[in-house]
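[Meeting: bench + compute handoff]

Bench side (C.D.) handed over the final construct sequence. Compute side (W.E.) agreed to return the predicted structure before the next meeting so the bench team could plan truncations. Sequence as handed over:
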Amino acid sequence: MCQLLGMNCNVPTDICFSFEGFHRRGGETDQHADGWGIAFFEGPGARVFLDSKPAVESPIAELVRNYPIRSMNVIAHIRKATKGVVALENTHPFMRELWGRYWIFAHNGTLEDFAPELQGQYQPVGATDSERAFCYMLERLRARFPEGQPSLRESFDLLREVTAEIAQHGRFNYLLSNGEYLIAHCYDNLCYILRHAPFAQAHLIDQDVTVDFNALTTPDDKVAVIATTPLTDNETWTRMQPRALVAFERGALVTEAFT
């Protein structure tokens, strides 16, 4: 099973603490050693780092660990390959443009007999079922709203419909963001935590590291962290219900439905 990590905030925030524990799951504390990637939104731009090496052996992961890139939306993925060989083109997260914005997507699970006919606006580069699902989702969004980006509510409603369709083919846990909001779908395994004042200390599960968020934040900061399994052992994480589709915006949960 792959591992997902997402962050959505109301102010630019670095993900170094969460990534410190998360990247250990890429070949050290867990078996996900078939590549990894992380994407940071910065205004309309996006930095995407990908490596087909295990995260614990990757020099790029070392750079990310020590480079406090501040972002309001981040998506990371550690891969356990099921469809497609271990190669850079099959490494998540994937990025495409829609309505003049970058969109980032990462998937945990395997889809069987999923071969929708794509119209041509979006085509997979690699051989994963994940990238094909992402292309299909974006095609459906563009077809429904050809005039430009709709409201979050309108996008969310269509994504709920498309997610339910794709999830008929297998496990479909995913994170999706356009830099304004972050959408998470729990097919069977995903959780989140909402951090806001009063902040406290947090201790990682995968490494003996503790951080005092009270010393690093302001009372107005709001941060949502989403992960396949909890990253800390002294905080209360919310396990999402199966088939829950959730939207986070500015560090808060703003919309929830079921597929």
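W.E. noted at the follow-up: The helical segments are 16-22, 59-66, 129-144, 152-166. C.D. will use this when planning the next construct.
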